[in-house]
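lol so apparently i was supposed to do this last week
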Amino acid sequence: MRTKIIAGNWKMNKVAAEAIAFARDLKVKTLNIRKTEIIVCPPFTALAIVHDILKDSRAEVGAQNVHFAASGAYTGEISAEMIESAGCRHVIIGHSERRQYFGETNQLVNQKLIHVLTTSLTPIVCIGETLEQRQSGQTENVIRTQLEESLTGLTTDQLKRVVLAYEPVWAIGTGVTATPEQAEEVHKFIRELIRSRFGQKSSDLIQILYGGSVKPDNIRDLLSRTDIDGGLIGGASLNVASFVEMIKITEDLIN
Ligand code: PGA
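anyway here it is w/ 2-phosphoglycolic acid bound
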């Protein structure tokens, strides 16, 4: 019922030549993929060229961040309209690195989300607790607040266009993955929060990705869980061979 998504978040990696080589290789290596949704999120400087290479392939392109306004005097920023015009279909909002290093709050995430929903882009909204919050038993509270505040003002129809990503901060780039049980527990909780606010149908339909040290070795176990609909993958998405391996494992799980 829900399709599975494999999204690669390149973060601040790959100059144009590297991005081009990756995209060409990915296109050839995913010719037989039929069901898995593939998304790559290069840095802004490579969005258009990567889209140009992948336009006839299964893979779609997404951006890693976006501004909340359509245009204006915001030096250095990029709007959803610009991302759209580079051929993107998706945009990540509220990644924990944006929250941690650039002070993004749930309110800002909400502002960005509301604007993105006026365009054709699919937002991938990230939430997740820190190690400290988990250890002090705050995970559910943190997730509830992040979700409520990030989704403020959204209608049920708007929610249909949103993808969520649960990314425990302690698992991002650390090599420490949440166990499939830990991840599934939070995914279930998120789905329940969505059900109580938007209803059963929305909760059944919304795709919730897991992110945090996903790699070929652990992706099968994570994505086999009922409420985990895909991966938002950083480090292991930078290498085509490992990214394609994860796509194939996912394709295999669906069949
Ligand atoms: P990681 O990053 O796979 O390198 O842990 C995931 C992410 O930050 O989206």
